[in-house]
Structures are given as structure tokens and as C-alpha cells.
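Try this one yourself first.
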């Protein structure tokens, strides 16, 4: 009896130690499939728990806000879309994992406002979210017609305001990303359409989305970042399989509090990579090439002043080590 008591006590202490040693993490995301596809899979499949991590998902509207929250200490790691990558180039955060190359950004316009080409954007009221991929794709569209922001009535807006302003007709066009683009078009599909998307400008830019961390956090908690990356890989290997897309969409819908159909409609916003694709790309320079092309586009647009070695802000060692 005494031996049994000692054994049970030992098990209780062991489980208590495991529970105490698990790391609590506040992880930032944006409410769409592209941001959530891997992390919500990792949560629901238990991959983070396998790595001793308790992940608490926290919603944000955009990448710059996520980086600011990381700097304030309220967020440990987070997901950003293409536009916020310029802040990583400027040294405010480091990329430790490529999430995907996206096609979720669009410039939406109304036929009824006489917008049938890039040139027709001149003089129009156009909404965009400053510092995000919204601003980037609008700039590309304007450049196609030899225009600048000075040639339009540009309105800086919060993401939610982009949707309401476009739907109400108070602006003529808007640069936004999924699922907001689908929401806007659905309100008046005969009039509102996509003038262009990321694919339109694939010859001059790529749109990587990434997982990021502050440099100081990465140095102090290198093992946690690696464990998080390993869990992401497990999730990516599940979520990248087409037969699992609808299950991932259900998890995304649950997290965002939207109908399943809305999440399913976002399944085509990118090609979802497996861990093998990312590890190989980190080893052979493919992923470095993506970020280099992106940085060149930032420099050409004036968003970044001068070239920075990609390895200064992208942690390829984590991408490779997590795959071992």
C-alpha cells in the first residue's frame, strides 16, 4: 500500500511539473484563413501541446499593430502580411517562418464610378490601410498608369472602415485583402469588381506572409521559438493537404466567428506549403529570393531607403533546424 501511495504521489508530482513547465504564449493573428491556416490547425490538432506550449490566440486588424503589441510586451509572436515586412527590414522584428506566398490582396472598384482601367483611378476617392499590403497593391495599380497618390483622393482607413466605406459608396475604390474583399464584392457583384490582385504584379513582386518575433525575444527564448516552429511544421503538413482544407476552414470559421462558407471561399488565397517545401527553400535560397524581390519592390517604391541583407531579418536557421 505504501509503495502504491509513493507511486501515485510521484505521478501527481510529475504531471504537476509538466503542467507548470508548459510555456504560455500570446500569439497574434488576423481574422482570415491565410493568417490562421497553420496556427489554428496546430491548436486543434494538439501540436503545440506536444511541444509544451499553451497557445493563446489574440486577434488584430493588421501587421503594424501586431508589431507594436509585440514591442509593448503583450504579444510573444505573430503573423504579418506582405506590407508589414518593411518593418522587419527596418529592424523592428525578425521573420522566423515563411507562412505562404499569398494572392489575397485586391484593388476593388465600381463600374458605376467609371473605373474600367488603372488610368481611371485618377481623381477618384480611394481607401487603403497605411503600412499594409493594401497600400502596396494600390501603389502598384497607380504606377501601371503612371499615377501617384497625389493623383487620387487617398483616404487612410482602418480595415473595418474600408469595408463600410466601399459598401456605402462613400469611396469609389478600395485596396483590401481577403476576406474583406469577398464581403465587399458580395454586396453588389454587378458593380463592384477586382481591378487587380497580387497575381497581376507577379512579374515585379511576390507577397510572402510570415511568422515574426522580436530580436530580443528570439535571443532570450530561442528554444521556445524553435518549438513553436516545429509545431507550425506539423500543422502545415496537415493543412497543406487538399483533403484537409475544409476541416481547416471549419477551425478558421470557429475562431473568427463566421459562417463556414466564408472561410472555405478563402482556401484559394495562396498555395499552402508543407514543411518540406519550406525547409528545401530555406536551404537552396528560394525563400531568400522571395524576400529579396519583396525588399527590392519596397526600395523601388520608396518604402525602404536602402538595401539590407535578407539574412539580417530572416532566421533561415530556425526554418532549417525545425525540420530536423
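Now uncover the answer:
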Amino acid at each position: 500500500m505504501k509503495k502504491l501511495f509513493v507511486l501515485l504521489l510521484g505521478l501527481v508530482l510529475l504531471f504537476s511539473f509538466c503542467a507548470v513547465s508548459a510555456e504560455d504564449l500570446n500569439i497574434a493573428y488576423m481574422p482570415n484563413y491565410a493568417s490562421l491556416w497553420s496556427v489554428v490547425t496546430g491548436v486543434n490538432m494538439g501540436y503545440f501541446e506536444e511541444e509544451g506550449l499553451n497557445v493563446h490566440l489574440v486577434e488584430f486588424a493588421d501587421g503594424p499593430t501586431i508589431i507594436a503589441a509585440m514591442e509593448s510586451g503583450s504579444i510573444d509572436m505573430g503573423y504579418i502580411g506582405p506590407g508589414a515586412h518593411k518593418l522587419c527590414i527596418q529592424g523592428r522584428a525578425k521573420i522566423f517562418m515563411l507562412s505562404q506566398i499569398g494572392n489575397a490582396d485586391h484593388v476593388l472598384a465600381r463600374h458605376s464610378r467609371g473605373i474600367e482601367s488603372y488610368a481611371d483611378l485618377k481623381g477618384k476617392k480611394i481607401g487603403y490601410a497605411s503600412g499594409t499590403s493594401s497600400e502596396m497593391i494600390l501603389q502598384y495599380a497607380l504606377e501601371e498608369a503612371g499615377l501617384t497618390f497625389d493623383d487620387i483622393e487617398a483616404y487612410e482607413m482602418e480595415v473595418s472602415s474600408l469595408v463600410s466605406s466601399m459598401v456605402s459608396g462613400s469611396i469609389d475604390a478600395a485596396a483590401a485583402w481577403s476576406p474583406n474583399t469577398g464581403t465587399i464584392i458580395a454586396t453588389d457583384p454587378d458593380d463592384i469588381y477586382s481591378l487587380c490582385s497580387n497575381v497581376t504584379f507577379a512579374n515585379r513582386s511576390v507577397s510572402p506572409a510570415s511568422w515574426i518575433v522580436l530580436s530580443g525575444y528570439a535571443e532570450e527564448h530561442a528554444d521556445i521559438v524553435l518549438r513553436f516552429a516545429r509545431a507550425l511544421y506539423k500543422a502545415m503538413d496537415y493543412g497543406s493537404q487538399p483533403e484537409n482544407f475544409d476541416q481547416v476552414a471549419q477551425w478558421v470559421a470557429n475562431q473568427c466567428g463566421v459562417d463556414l462558407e466564408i472561410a472555405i471561399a478563402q482556401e484559394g488565397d495562396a498555395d499552402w506549403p508543407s514543411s518540406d517545401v519550406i525547409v528545401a527553400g530555406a536551404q537552396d535560397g528560394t525563400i531568400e529570393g522571395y524576400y529579396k524581390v519583396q525588399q527590392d519592390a519596397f526600395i523601388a517604391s520608396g518604402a525602404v531607403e536602402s538595401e539590407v541583407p535578407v539574412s539580417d531579418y530572416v532566421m533561415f536557421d530556425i526554418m532549417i533546424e525545425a525540420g530536423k
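Discussion: Residues 2-21 form the longest helix (20 residues). The CA atoms of residues 97 and 211 lie 5 Å apart.
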